[in-house]
Q: What sequence folds into this?
């Protein structure tokens, strides 16, 4: 059929070349796709979020050791941080592809424990380990008398500061909230922020806020988990501090890369930074020139003489209740950080990461390491004041950052915010 | 180009399909050929869509009628999840913000991408360059675009405020305040999408027979008149497509806003899909999340039908 | 050939607009490329550093050293090109049928097809994952390719395009004795080249960059696609931006090249002589 009037011959041939290329690609594709997929073997599936490349040997060595001595082989899979707990674990559970052993965040821990997704581990945990672990850490993973995961790291939150900037302004490290606000004010210039606090409405914002809430004398829920405990002047005072820092422009209203490690701090665009122990490791590897100016102190208490408090986060390792191999899975999970020889537990925090171990023997056995800055400050000054991050259901966690966001960005008064906050928590607790 | 023209129709006709097949057999040869070729052409895609989208969607519909918390069997609860939607102030607020986003985003992208398409219609080397440049944001990874824009929007040292201050214009808090956050995410979304829709409109403009434009020019029409009286009317099928797709995209806005603000500050950019996502993947309240998705689907469906009606006159069938 | 002052003014204004737009559109891209060539501690420096004195290709080397990035690119290429070719063929057929052929139920089928666009992907993520698991496709290329093919976007656009083909053209071919399939292949398809070229770019881009679905459906390390690979440089405490930037520069090259080489088909005027009146 003559239709060549619709196209010039040259382009026709070029187009044909494209199609030929594409056809070849297609054939290759179909061949590759037709290859038989790996036969599903009976393995122990171990999932974590993605760690930096230099952390991988930790897992590789342990898994190699395990696989050499056990018939049931372990296969580890890593997933992008941002999707790990949301899409990945959820879809895995929904489709019956859940891992046997997995890392779980404090924010999600309670939901898994309450839903029966976690295998109780107390019967598998050796006594030496139970004795070695900090009681508070064990308590944080215990529900109704069952231990639902193994804690293996602690990252307390502190006040990081730029020593040069404080010295230049003639400032001492702030010890009270008034001093903190005054210092933040004085350090704020058109070119830099006085302080950085988390601004994204998320679990992380709550995590960093808890020390402020606790030091003011506030709590989120009462001890029996039956009613809100936030409708108090103490909670309002903590909210007010964060609101003031943002409203007055002393704190940045946004983050750049992420809240836990804000690039503006080591690049001189912010003078103080409320964040965790990990900041040191991050600065040490990315901004080595800044380490000399880096200072750290406990987060100030509201008034002079008030008890210092902080929070420590840290993931724990959980065993899926539906696993086909509960004994092996529990052994694998517990031994990763809980072997009688604590060197692996120590290496995790000292060599591969900047984290503390919940095993008391680790600090004792590595006394030399914990004499150096900033590990000494964390081990001796900050950590003793730390409480584990509480694990609240998503509905309660949401109410925390909603109250914060309202005070920080919506000009809601702290008093109104705590009232609304308490109402949300009570409404949720009524449905449990 | 060999084609089989079916000459016979399957004989036995029974039951409910009788009417339908009867109509087929009553057709003349051409109508029959059209029907056979039509079904054959549509079928592969139709099967794919039915299996991979409509099927899962029906599962979602069933989930929306139940209470499913990831663990255990779903409990049938009838329309309870849908009733909850009407009582849920967060849903209403998120819907309001989503609509605000949509009515700003859709006209902005359409106007800008049409302008760019008209600007770059001619074939020339410089146009090749500009088209590629305008397409760059489309191809850029969202994480990277997000972090760069966040840094540029920094109220303190951000490049945008520095530039504004340098030329004496007022600066803004951008994503750092509830007043300007929505505007900021719209700017970034428009920046990210305009090149994409520019391509669609460009292809649509090529589809307009050059004769029409030439004829108008011979009749003394200037460029503006050619645009308004020739290009725009003849572009209607493409415009319809672009507007429908833009509206759907806007009502489902999530990723491009999430990387900028996580829905903050103070929920100023929290969209309906973010809420649905959190209900499902954070709270495991899959029943309610599915019900919200179905409600969103229904809204988009009605909106699209309105657009179809409005644009029906544009379906050129010479 | 002399240009009148009016024409010169017109061209100048044209260039001014085009260049200002280009700066806005390319700015972040330039930033990304610049960041990929410098050490981590300079990416967020203030004032920004465009060309670093410590300029190096180290980040690119790191990307390939730390991850089998070439494997990710192969996977992405395989999936993207297969989906693109198959989808183009199927969608062109479906779009043509919906636009130019009369058959009972056509309108209903069309509405049904575009309604599939209105479902957020998150809503069907879990049901779809269950389905693909039932089919035994988890961690295979089938899972990445087959569910990505049916998509209403291309069908819808091609239908809109085919609606605009003048009836005379079809009639002429029919008088010459062409069948309906022949008209599609010899008349409609060549005319659709601009749209097909644009769709090829879009399909390739969408699948090359596809992220959430591959993450769920094929999460074994050797099945990863490019965007999943880029996300692997994000982490618990901050992101390795210098590597993310380098990986993103690598990832964007194939799509920009494809666009650059196919765009002449997108803007070719399909000649339609003898259509006046």
A:
């Amino acid at each position: 059929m003559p239709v060549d009037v619709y196209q010039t011959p040259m382009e026709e041939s070029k187009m044909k070349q494209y199609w030929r290329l594409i056809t070849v690609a297609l054939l290759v594709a179909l061949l590759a796709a037709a290859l038989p997929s790996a036969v599903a073997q009976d393995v122990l599936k171990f999932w974590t979020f993605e760690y930096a490349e230099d952390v991988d040997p930790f897992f590789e060595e342990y898994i190699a050791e395990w696989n050499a001595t056990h018939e049931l082989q372990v296969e580890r899979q890593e997933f992008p941080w941002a999707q790990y707990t949301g899409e990945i674990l959820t879809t895995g559970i929904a489709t019956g592809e859940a891992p046997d052993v997995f890392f779980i965040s404090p924010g999600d821990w309670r939901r898994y424990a309450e839903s029966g997704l976690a295998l109780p581990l107390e019967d598998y945990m050796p006594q030496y380990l139970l004795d070695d672990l900090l009681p508070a850490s064990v308590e944080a993973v215990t529900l109704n008398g069952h231990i639902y995961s193994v804690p293996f790291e602690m990252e307390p939150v502190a006040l990081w500061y730029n020593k040069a900037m404080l010295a230049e302004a003639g400032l001492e490290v702030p010890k009270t909230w008034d001093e903190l606000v005054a210092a933040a004010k004085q350090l704020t210039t058109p070119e830099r922020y006085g302080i950085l606090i988390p601004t994204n409405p998320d679990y992380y914002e709550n995590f960093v806020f808890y020390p402020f809430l606790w030091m003011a004398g506030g709590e989120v829920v009462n001890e029996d988990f039956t009613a809100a405990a936030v409708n108090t002047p103490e909670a309002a005072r903590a909210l007010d501090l964060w609101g003031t820092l943002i409203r007055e422009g002393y704190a940045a209203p946004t983050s750049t890369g992420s809240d836990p490690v804000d690039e503006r701090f080591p690049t001189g665009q912010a003078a103080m930074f409320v964040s965790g122990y990990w900041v040191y490791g991050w600065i040490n590897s990315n901004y080595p020139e800044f380490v000399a100016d880096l200072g750290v102190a406990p987060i100030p208490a509201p008034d002079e003489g008030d008890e210092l408090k902080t929070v420590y986060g840290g993931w724990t390792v959980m065993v899926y209740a539906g696993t086909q191999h509960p004994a092996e899975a529990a052994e694998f999970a517990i031994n990763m950080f809980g072997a009688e020889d604590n060197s692996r537990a120590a290496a995790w925090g000292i060599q591969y990461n900047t984290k503390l171990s919940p095993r008391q023997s680790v600090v004792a056995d590595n006394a030399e390491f914990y004499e150096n800055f900033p590990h000494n400050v964390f081990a001796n000054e900050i950590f003793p004041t730390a409480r584990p991050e509480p694990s609240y259901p998503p509905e309660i966690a949401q109410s925390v950052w909603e109250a914060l966001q309202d005070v920080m960005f919506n000009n809601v008064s702290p008093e109104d915010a705590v009232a609304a906050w308490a109402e949300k928590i009570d409404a949720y607790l009524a449905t449990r | 180009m060999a084609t089989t023209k079916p000459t016979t129709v399957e004989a036995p006709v029974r039951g409910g399909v009788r009417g339908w097949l009867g109509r087929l057999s009553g057709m003349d040869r051409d109508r029959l050929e059209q029907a056979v070729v039509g079904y054959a052409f549509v079928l592969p895609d139709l099967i794919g869509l039915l299996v991979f989208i409509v099927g899962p969607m029906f599962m979602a519909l069933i989930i929306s009628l139940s209470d499913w918390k990831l663990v255990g069997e779903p409990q049938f609860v009838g329309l309870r999840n849908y009733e909850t939607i009407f009582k849920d102030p967060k849903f209403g607020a998120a819907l309001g913000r989503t609509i605000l986003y949509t009515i700003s985003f859709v006209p902005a992208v359409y106007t800008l991408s049409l302008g760019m398409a008209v600007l770059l219609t001619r074939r020339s080397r410089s146009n090749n360059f500009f088209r590629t440049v305008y397409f760059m944001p489309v191809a850029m990874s969202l994480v990277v675009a997000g972090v760069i824009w966040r840094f540029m929007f920094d109220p303190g040292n951000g490049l945008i405020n520095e530039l504004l201050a340098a030329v004496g214009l007022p600066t803004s808090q951008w994503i750092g305040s509830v007043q300007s956050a929505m505007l900021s995410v719209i700017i970034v979304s428009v920046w990210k999408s305009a090149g994409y829709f520019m391509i669609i409109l460009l292809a649509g403009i090529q589809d307009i027979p050059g004769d029409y434009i030439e004829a108008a020019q011979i009749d003394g029409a200037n460029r503006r008149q050619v645009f308004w009286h020739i290009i725009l009317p003849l572009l209607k099928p493409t415009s319809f497509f672009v507007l429908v797709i833009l509206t759907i995209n806007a009502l489902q806005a999530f990723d491009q806003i999430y990387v900028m603000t996580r829905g903050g500050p103070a929920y100023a950019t929290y969209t309906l899909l973010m809420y649905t996502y959190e209900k499902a993947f954070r709270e495991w309240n899959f029943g309610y999340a599915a019900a919200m998705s179905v409600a969103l689907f229904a809204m988009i469906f009605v909106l699209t039908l309105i657009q179809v009606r409005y644009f029906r006159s544009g379906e050129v069938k010479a | 050939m002399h240009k009148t002052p009016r024409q010169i003014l017109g061209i100048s204004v044209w260039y001014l607009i085009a260049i200002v737009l280009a700066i806005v559109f390319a700015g972040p891209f330039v930033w990304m490329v610049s960041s990929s060539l410098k050490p981590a501690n300079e990416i967020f420096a203030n004032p920004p550093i465009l060309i670093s004195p410590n300029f190096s290709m180290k980040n690119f080397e790191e990307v390939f050293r730390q991850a089998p990035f070439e494997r990710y690119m192969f996977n992405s290429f395989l999936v993207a090109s297969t989906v693109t070719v198959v989808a183009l063929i199927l969608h062109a057929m479906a779009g043509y049928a919906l636009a130019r052929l009369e058959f009972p139920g056509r309108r209903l089928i069309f509405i049904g097809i575009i309604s599939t666009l209105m479902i957020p992907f998150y809503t069907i993520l879990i049901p779809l994952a269950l389905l693909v698991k039932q089919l035994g496709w988890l961690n295979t290329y089938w899972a990445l390719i087959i569910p990505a093919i049916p998509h209403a976007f291309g069908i819808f656009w091609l239908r809109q395009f085919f609606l605009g083909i003048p009836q005379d053209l079809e009639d002429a071919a029919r008088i010459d004795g062409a069948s309906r399939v022949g008209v599609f292949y010899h008349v409609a398809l060549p005319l659709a080249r601009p749209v097909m070229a644009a769709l090829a770019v879009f399909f390739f881009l969408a699948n090359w960059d596809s992220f959430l679905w591959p993450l769920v459906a094929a999460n074994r390390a050797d099945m990863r696609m490019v965007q999943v690979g880029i996300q692997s440089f994000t982490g618990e405490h901050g992101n390795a931006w210098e590597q993310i930037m380098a990986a993103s520069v690598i990832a964007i090259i194939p799509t920009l090249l494809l666009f650059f080489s196919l765009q002449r088909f997108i803007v070719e005027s399909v000649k339609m002589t003898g259509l006046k009146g």
In short: The interface with chain A takes residues 1, 69-71, 147, 150-151, 153-157, 173-178, 261-268, 277-278, 280-284 of chain B (CB under 8 Å). The first strand of chain B starts at residue 66 and ends at 67. The beta strands of chain B are 66-67, 75-76. Chain B has two domains: 15-64, 80-314.
